[in-house]
Design a protein that fits this description.
four-stranded mixed β-sheet; 39% helix; alpha/beta; seven-stranded mixed β-sheet; binds D-malate; 250 residues
């Protein structure tokens, strides 16, 4: 069994993700926001690499069914309907909509994971379902990659903590003796050991968490730290993120 953690998509090569199950984490805030959007009834989220690409994708969609969302420097892109604050993505705002989204790091990480067998969009708010799906991938294929969005091609504490929380929960009985891990996974496990289950503490300690609080997004940081408030499993395939529905739900 093998678990790898990558702290940023910078330097990731296609073979790091090819044919694997990959969990993408951008806890502050893109993957949390995507979970809010789909739990709120959005039809799909379409990640775009740039503002220009988002506008291009949007042109091919029915105007009434579509919303543009995204941030630069954590603030809504001018002319876009929504920013990247999960609290904006209420059911009233997003139900039935296709959301074209571009963010500084989160959507880049998702795009970098293309080529994977399966891409799971992970956050604290949907943690239990992510664990369940990642465990199934490990049982079936013996392998999992966890990709942190990081910040501007660098390490981000909140994502590394989440990766460690996930890796820890997934460790088989017998722990590290029974699983092959890369250095990223080992380091993330140490970070998770330091913070325990205290998501809010880890998020508040991070540079991004402190910056968001300074910009007036303190409630976002809190919302992003709450486990299992939005039980939805977003999967990214064919350039669309949609909520996975177990077969028996139709
Ligand atoms: C990102 O994708 O860079 C982040 O989600 C930034 C943010 O907090 O808006």
């Amino acid at each position: 069994m093998k678990i790898d953690v990558f702290f940023t998509p910078a330097g990731l090569s296609p073979s790091d993700v090819a044919g694997r199950s990959v969990v993408v984490l951008d806890i502050l805030r893109a993957t949390t926001t995507i979970a809010f959007a789909l739990a709120g009834g959005a039809k799909a989220v379409l990640p775009a690499a740039s503002t220009e690409e988002a506008l291009r994708i949007a042109q091919n969609l029915e105007r009434d069914d579509m919303l543009l969302a995204g941030e630069r420097r954590s603030v809504r892109i001018p002319g876009f309907a929504l920013g990247n604050s999960p609290l904006e993505f209420t059911p009233e705002a997003v139900r039935g909509k296709t959301i074209v989204m571009t963010t500084t790091n989160g959507t880049q990480a998702l795009i970098a994971a293309q080529g994977a067998r399966e891409i799971i969009v992970g956050a604290a708010v949907n943690f239990a379902l992510v664990v369940q799906r990642a465990r199934a991938a490990l049982e079936q294929h013996g392998d999992l990659a966890i990709l942190c969005a990081g910040r501007e091609r660098q390490f981000a504490l909140e994502d590394a903590f989440a990766a460690g929380r996930l890796a820890k929960v997934l460790l088989p009985e017998g722990g590290l003796r029974r699983v092959e891990v890369n250095d990223g996974a080992l380091a993330s496990l140490e970070i998770a050991r330091h913070f325990g289950e205290r998501w809010l503490r880890a998020l508040r300690a991070s540079t991004h968490g402190r910056e968001l609080a300074g910009l007036g997004f303190r409630n976002d940081v809190k919302a992003c730290a709450e486990e299992n408030t939005h039980p939805v499993l977003p999967l990214y395939a064919d350039r669309r993120i949609t909520a996975h529905r177990p077969p028996n739900e139709g």
